[in-house]
Amino acid sequence: VQLQASGGGLVQAGGSLRLSCGASTDDFGSYQMGWFRQAPGKEREFVAAIDWRGAWTKYANSVKGRFTISRDNYKNTLLLEMNNLKTEDTAVYYCAADPYSGSYYADAEAYTYWGQGTQVTVSS
Question: Minimal CA–CA distance to 33: which of 67, 76, 65, 88?
Fold first, then answer.
């Protein structure tokens, strides 16, 4: 499975961006999906997750109420809508796929496949 993240860029604080992650697999709908991010000098951290059919979503406390994760299984696409961006949201954002739909959705170790990352920079 290959994942391709896109949509990053430079935006002012308070602005919005939408990240996309395309998957090259016919069974995208069977994967639990997640977004993670990594800022310079920091460890990769969980951002959001969604189950295989979009029935539930989970968010890190730092993005809850500002970010929305969604998916389109017909288009093999994962999305992350980011609103009211803050400078602390600056990071490389990665999409990831978990073929086992495990309970540890916030744990990067639970994900088997990763995209290459897309840079999000929020200026003050």
Answer: 76
pLDDT in tens, 27-64: 999 999 999 999 999 999 999 999 999 999 999 999 99
Q: Residue 57, SS3?
A: strand
What distance in Å separates the CA atoms of residue 75 and residue 100, rounded to the nearest whole number?
21
- The Cα–Cα gap between 31 and 49 comes to 11
Handedness of CA 53, 98, 43, 93 (dihedral sign): negative
The contacts of residue 37 (CB under 8 Å, 6+ apart) are: 44, 45, 47, 89, 91, 92, 93, 94, 120
What's the token pair of residue 96? 């990831």
